[in-house]
Amino acid sequence: MSADSDYDSKTFTIQQTADDELHCSRAFVNKLLRTGKLEHSKVGSRVIIRGRAIRKLLDDSAVQS
């Protein structure tokens, strides 16, 4: 298994995504979730974000800029 696929299958909370992965506010991550720009899953009341969703968001934004 490569490092890329390890990251892609890793899961993050909203707070981890904001603090460690995107270096932005929790409110901004919530906005990305609400608008459908960041894919996520719900397990009960918890929101789970996969590394591949973060990678896709960053790849998509790099193409547009």
Word description of this protein:
The chain is an alpha+beta fold and 65 residues long. Helices cover 60% and strands 15% of the residues. It is built from four helices and three strands; from the N terminus they run H-E-H-H-E-E-H. Strands 1-3-2 form a three-stranded antiparallel sheet.
In spatial order, strands of the major sheet run 1-3-2
* Count of helical regions: 4
| SSE class | alpha+beta
Largest sheet: 3 strands, antiparallel
pLDDT < 50 runs, ≥5 residues: none
Percent helix range: 55-70%
Q: Which overall shape is indicated by the principal axes computed on the Cα atoms? A: globular
**Strand portion, in percent?**
15-25%
Overview features:
alpha+beta, 3 strands, about 60 residues, 4 helices
Summarize the model shown.
The protein is α+β, with helices and mostly antiparallel strands. 60% of the residues lie in helices and 15% in strands.
Explain the layout of strands and helices.
Blueprint: H1 3-9, E1 11-12, H2 14-22, H3 26-34, E2 41-43, E3 46-50, H4 51-64
Antiparallel strand pairs: 1-3, 2-3
Helix pairs in contact: 1-4, 2-3
